[in-house]
Fold this sequence. Notes:
By secondary structure, the protein is mostly helical. Helix content is 45%, strand content 5%.
Amino acid sequence: VDGYEDIRNELTAxxxxxxxxxxxxxxxxxxxxxxxxxxxxxxxxxxxxxDMYDVDHILPRTYIKDDSLDNxxxxxxKKNAEKRDIYPLPQGFTNERDFWKMLKTKGLIGDVxxxxxxxxxxxxEEDYAGFxxxxxxxxxxxxxxxxxLLKRKYPDTKIVYSKxxxxxxxxxxxxxxxxxxxxxLHHARDAYLKYSGALE
Length: 200
């Protein structure tokens, strides 16, 4: 990309490999050509993993749990603090539209990222219904994939799905509480409870 020779040099430097680019912050840094997505300010690569920067969800998790790279940007922490959970992005954040358009044109960000960054209309009921439907589809696909894996592992076993209501009743009966702030153990417990009854 013209005007970003310094980024090209960093990308081809020793130590930057396909494996290292799996690090979320480093990947986002290069995808954004070393700039904060909300302010356009240069990001210091040497301090990329410090508290100067945040990986922010463009569409806040209070709206939808979308942890895909399409919904993430690397930003200055001070800009993230200004944004809070406001969506669409506040007026002062949209000064980078030309930068975002260039990233999209160059294929560095996709349509989903670009549309979420540039949206100006508040979310409506149709949007919320779409979020819910997509989550259901993902959940259904995951359940089918797990069932298929179980069938392959245990071919002589009948797979029986457990209803979410039964899982909740079991957790309530045996005081199995969720605490997202502590860790993600509740995900493992839910998966265990959902599929532990699947094998007969």
